[in-house]
Amino acid sequence: MAATLQVVLQSDVANVGKSGELVKVRPGFARNYLIPRSLAVPATTAAVNRINHEKAVAVAKADKAKKEAQGVAEKINGLKLTMARSVGEDDRLFGSVTAKEIESAAKAAGIEIDRKKMHLAEPLKALGTFEIPVKLMTDVTATLKVEVVKK
């Protein structure tokens, strides 16, 4: 009897591997635990080819999403939003400029930005120009320039 058996994991299994990986396990573990619970399938050539195809499709999809995010990042980097707010003495704002207001101003300018992706530590409470990082993907970050002026 073989000391190990190759299986393709269908879902993540602790201390064994992640979904889609080709792993070697003991035959009893595969026969009694992994295969009956549909956590793995035997590593036939068809199963291995299917996994390789799915990985290639996932890589292509990720590349496409990254290119789209880079295109949006270029638009955001070229955008400068001007927010007019009423001010009191010492040029202090009445209220503040929030991420929701910046999101709606960007939408009016023609660019969809999710406010949850803006890394605005706190609302803008002063006049001036601010640079707000917008994290579109794990490795794609843009900088949005927001200028707060007197009304």
TrEMBL record:
Note the superkingdom of the native organism: Bacteria
Molecular function in Gene Ontology: rRNA binding; structural constituent of ribosome
GO biological process, alphabetically ordered? translation
Any idea which UniProt keywords this protein has?
Ribonucleoprotein, Ribosomal protein, RNA-binding, rRNA-binding
Q: Where is the Ribosomal protein L9 domain?
A: 17-44
Instruction: Return the GO cellular component terms, semicolon-separated.
Output: ribonucleoprotein complex; ribosome
Annotated function:
Binds to the 23S rRNA.
What protein family is recorded?
Answer: Belongs to the bacterial ribosomal protein bL9 family.
Protein name as annotated: Large ribosomal subunit protein bL9
Organism field: Labilithrix luteola
Gene responsible for this protein: rplI
